[in-house]
Amino acid sequence: MTSQLLFSQLLNGVQLGVLLFLLAAGLTLVFGIMSFVNLAHGSLYMLGAYFGAAVFARTDSFLLGLLAAVVGAGVVGLMLDRFALTKLYERDHLDQVLATFGLILFFNELIRILWGPSSVFMQVPAALADTVSIGGITYPAYRLAIIAAGIAVAAGLYLLIQKTRVGMLIRAGATNSNMVAALGVNIKWLNTLVFALGAALAGLAGVMAGPIVSVQPGMGEPVLILTLVVIIIGGLGSIRGAFYAALIVGVVDTLGRAFMPTVMRTLFERNTADAAGPALASMLIYLFMAVVLALKPQGLFPANAGATR
User: Fold this and answer.
1) Which domain holds residue 121?
2) Is the distance from CB of 260 to CB of 267 less than 8 angstroms?
3) CA geometry: angle 136, 153, 135, nearest 5 deg
4) Whole-structure pTM value
5) Structural domain total, the chain
6) pLDDT tens-digit profile of 20-37?
7) Strand (E) or helix (H) holding 132
């Protein structure tokens, strides 16, 4: 194990964590404020990847693709909230889970109809196609750009939630939506704003992941599972918890998959290690989640005053 390999894998873990944060931030906002379980959040991530790939292929502009992904996913989220999901907010979580699972199937089939069952490939933008040197260690510039963009979004969310009037209303709505409505605030449109913001963040994660993953139908389900793990570890409804937990999950998952087989070979014979190492690596984040739930059932960074701490 060389220092360059370890450093590169650490950065890969941070990059995965940043993408998970973009998804977890929107999902935890929706759950924390509206107490709504949206399993279709991964489908919005998938739509963002497809919107971005389609516009990028036609215009050869990654920025236009990114804009199309964010706006497109946000608009889809807004339409879902206003025309499909509003009636479910007062229903129990089982109804919400069943309805949004149905949306997953709908969007997967819609993607197959519009783009076909094959994968769509999205190139890394030319300006970020090279590598950069960090202390003598080379690393892809595009992956560094993902990390920088994720940190910028995290800072922007903090400013929005903590320093603006809209953020104040979001925090108040998370604490006591009935009181906020009684004060004259249109709580339904506030919920719609939050839902659209979460959808836009999912679309942003999708288009940024497009050049480094396979853009294909159903790509939202695996990442949704990781996102739910992040939210549980960080604490339901906590933006701060989502950020820290996403980084933890990203690093643990990446380092586990990279080095667990090697570690196992030092403890067991090669055949046993090669069989058990990858399996154990894929279980690490779930074992970590189980430990967190056993020691801190509310998560590592629970929201003390609602969804947006």
Assistant:
1) 16-295
2) no
3) 5
4) 0.87
5) 1
6) 999 888 888 887 777 788
7) strand 131-134
